[in-house]
Amino acid sequence: MSFNVTEIQATPNPNAAKFVLDRRISETPVSFLTADQAQGHTIAQQLFAIDGVSSLLFLGDFITVNKDAAASWAPIKRSVRKVLTNV
């Protein structure tokens, strides 16, 4: 069950980006503030394995990814797309 990222939207927070998907990923908000909270959720675990990812929010047809302030967006965006298209 792979997802295509149709758009990556900036947010008011420079350390957060909204990854809009081609279909719904969650009917209700699901947040993961730590990698430990992601245990048992395959996609969240794979996203937390990306260097620099600090928290996640799944809702409707998007995932908001928060990164560490020191991390660069370019490699994170590439890795998020790769995870979502290969799940």
From TrEMBL:
Residues 6-86 form the Scaffold protein Nfu/NifU N-terminal domain. It holds the Pfam family Nfu_N. SUPFAM superfamilies: Hypothetical protein SAV1430. InterPro entries: Nfu/NifU_N, Nfu/NifU_N_sf. This is Scaffold protein Nfu/NifU N-terminal domain-containing protein. It comes from uncultured Phycisphaerae bacterium.
